[in-house]
Write a structure and sequence with these properties.
82 residues, two-stranded antiparallel ribbon, 20% helix, globular
């Protein structure tokens, strides 16, 4: 028996920040992915969030322009406004 699997295509979105960096937990709240800081903490600690392709469990991780945050099949490319 042959089984064919096809991975769902990842969505891509560009996010512009007006500061030098944004903390990972604040980013999740900013985008509305997490409703509260506690929920953001759970997503991060459970290893659901990736930064630049690697699982990141540090909720205070600084996200800079050029970084890519991946969660729930969406890749968010971060760009600085200036």
């Amino acid at each position: 028996m042959k089984i064919k699997l096809k991975a769902a295509e990842r969505k891509k979105e560009t996010v512009i920040i007006t500061t030098e960096f944004i903390r990972l937990d604040a980013f999740l709240k900013f985008k509305g992915i997490a409703e509260t800081g506690g929920q953001a903490k759970c997503f991060i600690q459970d290893g659901i969030t990736k930064v630049n392709g690697e699982v990141c469990t540090a909720r205070g991780k600084k996200i800079h322009g050029g970084d890519i945050v991946s969660i729930f099949s969406v890749d968010y490319e971060i760009k600085n406004e200036n």
